[in-house]
Amino acid sequence: MKRISVFSAFILTATILVAVIAPLGVIAAEPCGDLPSTVTMSYVANKTTAYLTTTISGDGVLNGTYEGWCVDLNNQAVFNTSHNAKVICSYDTEADNYVAHPENLDSVNWMLNRDFRGETGTNGTFTWQDVQVAIWRLLQDPTYSGSDPTGRNLDRVGEIVALALVDGDGFMPGTGDLCVIILVPLNGEEEVTSQISIITWSLPGGGEGCTPGYWKNNWDKWEGVSWEPTGYSGGDLFSAVFGRTIEVTVGRRVITNPTLFQALNAQGGGINALARHAVAALLNAASPDVDYDYSVAAVKSMVQGALPDGDIDGVKGDLADANEAGCPIDMHGNPIVVALI
Fold first, then answer.
1. pTM for the structure as a whole
2. What would the pLDDT profile of 52-109 be if each residue is shown by its tens digit?
3. Domain with 288 in it
4. How far apart are alpha carbons 232 and 228 in whole angstroms?
5. How far is residue 125 from each of residues 138, 153, 257, 341, measured CA to CA in Å?
6. Which helix (H) or strand (E) holds 214?
7. In a domain, 338, yes or no
8. DSSP state of 255
9. How far is 88 from 200, CA to CA, in rounded Å?
10. How many domains does the chain contain in total?
11. Are 271 and 249 in contact (CB under 8 A)?
């Protein structure tokens, strides 16, 4: 079984050792973090950015709306219905009971953190349909070639699967990364009552973040010196980065398809506020100098889940909390040193 590599086993051993020597009251979390055992969930067909849209309630930790993916070709999905679902971390051996090929769950974790959607491979631009079929091939049926979902390209699917099996072998999510969580709808007799699916959960990060104002001023007045290590530019289009076309208000102008810098200058609440904090979150996550709460993939996933008709204010609030945690770099991009007295 290849789910845990030698390197990953070393990391897990180190985590256990840290837990042993940590002060009393400090509890080491499993790879997915501290999760509830069950939640109330419902899902509907998404088929715009992912296969499903999954809503979780009944638990304060996971409550919210997520992009969901099917891992189950055997059970029919019962949509628009509340299900009592078992929650399983994809690195838990209990996943073996519900996934045909659990040895590939590390590769699926890597693939969803990598987020191929919108990127170009040797066979064209990867789509959410390609990602869904890749998940089925990795976890359910390696030879799946059905027509569902419409729009998948089997050459692109093969490209994703090949990369995931090699580069994702032994992958273990870390701070700010996404961790795959399996949701299994069950009745009182522990029988599966609807399609088994997965969502991704962002692991807690390091508690640092720079505000939208910091990133706006750094681009405008300091030649974007702090932007350089992130790989992003103020001239990059919001739609190209996040896969969503939006309108923002800057002064008296309404700008369709803004750049990242224009999004940082958006004024007002709603989508404008989300746009500001989405760009700041992206830059914080991409900066090697900021220990941010979310990964780049997690930020993109959150924003994509909120736009156009999701929980815009909720996602904005989560990103704002992370962006206002405290900026560790000055306007020159240098670490801020706190003198100890």
1. 0.60
2. 999 998 766 788 889 999 999 999 999 999 999 999 999 999 999 999 999 999 999 9
3. 212-323
4. 7
5. 20, 10, 20, 55
6. helix 212-221
7. no
8. E
9. 12
10. 2
11. no
